[in-house]
């Protein structure tokens, strides 16, 4: 049985390209997280105090929940 050495260096620019793609991917993920938090805050803000109390929240909790979702 023969063994071959298969390790090669990355082609020129591959690391930079990978980092750029990763940066863009992280940017899109951050925007999606921000939007999810925004939608959640808006939905909770539309609930009445009674409905918020039914799910164990008060008006002051809405901003905290939104900030936890965006991190």
Automatic annotation (TrEMBL):
The source's domain of life comes to Bacteria
Pfam family of the protein (one): YjiS-like
Domain (YjiS-like): give its ranges: 27-63
| Entry protein name | DUF1127 domain-containing protein
